[in-house]
Amino acid sequence: MTRISVFGGTGYTGSHLATEAARRGHEVTAFSRSEPEQPVDGVRYAQGSLLDEATRRAALEAADVVVVAVAPRGDMAGSVREGIRALATEAEQAGVRLGVVGGAGSLHVAEGGPRLFDTPDFPADYKPESLEMAEALDDLRATATLDWFYLCPPAAYGGFAPGEPRGTYRVGEDLLLTDAEGNSFIGGADFALALVDEIETPAHRRARFTVAY
Question: For residue 58, what are the contacts with CB-CB under 8 A and spacing of at least 6?
Fold first, then answer.
């Protein structure tokens, strides 16, 4: 059993992660600024923000691994990077592994090619949060000894396209994964499957990776 704290534990990714981790018998604490609409059996819920030092301390004390699944949008725009940077410093000191769920925007579309958010068709509305999460990745890479991983979803990922669980996924590194038809997609349940697999059997230490069908 692993003790897992999840920031953004009532959001799309965080709730799927909490569900999958609890199903596998892990001790899960979900931290969020709002109460869950549908609490998951076996998950402990605590209200608090990634930006609050006391909440970060509580999350670290309750965990072997802390996962940040908070998007820099709405009133969190421009603040998530700083929250992750503070948490990374504290996790490094505490010896706790840190996982961050980023966005697809910083993935490259081809070897040596542009990042997704630099392509002409990338939605302008999403670029600020993609840039902020790319900067958060750079911050993690600059740490000295922190045990971290950074997981990017594929291009089509979120509550708008939940999909049906397949129980499988493919793994990539810095390139956007697409299928034979050019689709880049994974459902929330299978994205959580990949997250918990990484927590249980670390394969990407101090590294970014991505998953898709």
Answer: 31, 46, 48
- pLDDT on residue 112: 87
Tokens 């076996």 locate to 42
Task: Identify the segments of the chain with pLDDT beneath 50.
Answer: none
Where in the chain are the domains? 3-212
Under 8 Å between Cβ of 28 and 44: yes
Task: Kindly give the interhelix angle for 127-141 and 80-94, rounded to the nearest 10 degrees.
Answer: 20
Per the CB < 8 A criterion, the answer to whether 30 and 69 are in contact is: no
CA–CA gap between residue 108 and residue 116 (Å, rounded): 6
Looking at residue 201, what is its pLDDT?
Answer: 98
pTM for this model (two decimals): 0.97
Pairing, β 170-172 against β 207-212: antiparallel
Indicate the class that CATH gives domain 3-212. alpha beta
Percentage of the chain lying above the pLDDT 90 cut: 96
Ramachandran assignment for 78, one of left (phi > 0), alpha (psi -120 to 50 degrees), beta (any other): left
Indicate if the alpha-carbon torsion angle 19, 25, 26, 29 is positive or negative.
positive
Rounded (10°) CA dihedral 17, 18, 19, 21: 80
Query: What is the pLDDT at residue 5?
Result: 98
